[in-house]
Design a protein that fits this description.
This protein is of the alpha+beta class. It folds into three domains: about 5-130, no CATH class; about 135-230 and about 355-385, no CATH class; about 240-345, Chitinase A, domain 3, CATH 3.10.50.40. Helices cover about 45% and strands about 10% of the residues. It has twelve helices and eight strands. The chain has helices spanning about 5-15, 35-45, 100, 125-155, 160-180, 185-195, 200-220, 225-235, 265-285, 290-295, 310-320, 355-385, and strands at about 55-60, 70, 115, 120-125, 245-250, 305, 330, 335-345. Strands 6-5-8-7 form a four-stranded antiparallel sheet. A hairpin with a 2-residue loop joins strand 3 and strand 4. Helix 5 packs across helix 7 (about 200-220). The longest helix is centred in the middle third of the chain and has 32 residues, at about 125-155. About 10% of the residues are buried.
């Protein structure tokens, strides 16, 4: 990638010098070019910084010379050309006060001294320069990448709205919480997991992911032949495991209206009594759903479940029952369960047409995981080729 030009670097330095959130002042840009009068005032005014022998400055004279002046031992101010008297201003001279010559120029902002060690002074400008040397190119690449993504979204008539970002952020946070169970939540979690605060993570990780996914889906659409080849290569991923269609009566132990209370022996005994009662009613031939409806904690509709998706005690019972059979009351840490298997489906390999949507989703996910970084680089190169992204020529001054 060509090196950035001076103007672009200066803008980036201002960005890097600005505080991320609250506190401190932004780094001020340099003032306009000094006039002879303001230069004279600068020489005559005391410096706001301690004298630093290692710092030198160029002073431009009217004749075009650029001598180097040591700030540690500043010489007297150089002679400035005296304007010729005119009819309109017969007394004009360099001895006139600045207010008589021109509006007073804004003083140059003083560098903020951050530390003094011996005769070495460290200022905010030193820190800004060091930030550029260490991370400036990375920051520039990031800003260019974000601009390219915005441009590509506009070209394809796409967008990433706030609701999408928040929904995806919630998914990210859930996964991060599982990976870092002791890291807390929100701001603390994203800092531990990624080194970024929550707002920065939302912008850099979540928004970028969504934008890149949408662009890839719009531009890298696989053909039918390619999808079928992917399906044939990854058939084990699409095998449907054995499943059962079941319904249950669920009776948790309760203390009054507080279902989250710590339950004692009496509450568990009452739950067991109700479970035995419900089981008896079922064995007497009452409709399963009618019995389940008389206990508020029960599921209202049957559900399909695969082996391993339920609690161990329920999983073992469900896949041991034949269709139509009813289990005995089963105690878990949640309460008492009575389940009935309505239908059972054996493990099978579906056809491509049955799972085409799943095949496309998995294809896109694998493509994103393996090639997202290369794809963004390709977008940058294509933007340069089409002259939508213009970078300064490093050979130009």
């Amino acid at each position: 990638m060509p090196k950035p030009g001076i103007a672009l670097i200066a803008s980036l330095l201002l960005l890097l010098a600005a505080p991320r959130s609250g506190g401190g002042e932004r780094y001020a840009p340099p003032p306009p070019e000094m006039t002879p009068e303001s230069r004279r005032d600068a020489w005559e005014s005391p410096s706001p910084l301690p004298p630093t022998p290692s710092v030198r400055v160029n002073v431009a004279l009217s004749g075009g010379d650029h001598p180097v002046v040591d700030l540690a031992t500043p010489p007297p101010p150089p002679a400035l050309p005296q304007a010729e008297p005119t009819r309109d201003n017969p007394t004009l001279s360099i001895d006139s006060q600045p207010s008589e010559l021109a509006p007073e120029a804004s003083p140059a902002p003083a560098a903020l001294v951050l530390a003094v060690i011996g005769d070495k002074v460290i200022t905010d400008q030193d820190v800004t320069r060091e930030l550029w040397l260490r991370r400036g190119q990375d920051a520039l690449d990031w800003l260019i990448g974000q601009a390219v993504l915005v441009d590509e979204l506009d070209r394809h008539g796409l967008g990433v709205d706030a609701a999408e970002v928040e929904s995806r952020l919630a998914e990210h946070l859930e996964k991060l919480a599982q990976a870092f169970p002791r890291a807390g939540s929100g701001e603390q979690l994203t800092r531990v997991a990624s080194g970024m605060g929550l707002s920065e993570y939302r912008e850099r990780a979540v928004w970028t992911e969504l934008a890149l996914r949408k662009i890839m889906q719009a531009t890298l659409k696989p053909g039918e032949t390619e999808l079928r080849a992917f399906f044939a290569e990854h058939q084990p991923d699409f095998v449907e495991p054995e499943r059962v269609f079941l319904e249950q009566v669920f009776i948790p132990p309760q203390t009054g209206e507080d279902s989250d209370a710590v339950h004692g022996v009496a509450e568990w005994n009452e739950a067991e009594r109700l479970a035995v009662e419900a089981h008896t009613r079922l064995r007497m031939g009452e409709d399963f759903r009618a019995v389940a409806a008389s206990y508020p904690g029960s599921d209202s509709e049957p559900v399909w479940v695969s082996q391993g998706e339920l609690l161990r005690e329920l999983d073992e019972a469900a896949f041991a029952l034949r269709p139509g059979a009813i289990s005995n009351p089963i105690r878990t840490g949640m309460g008492y369960h009575i389940i009935q298997v309505v239908e059972r489906r054996k493990r099978r390999m579906p056809s491509f047409d049955e799972v085409r949507g799943k095949v496309l989703a998995q294809y896109e996910e694998r493509l994103f995981t393996e090639t997202a970084g290369d794809f963004l680089t390709l977008l940058k190169d294509q933007s340069i080729k089409e002259k939508r992204l213009v970078l300064p020529d490093p050979e130009q001054p």
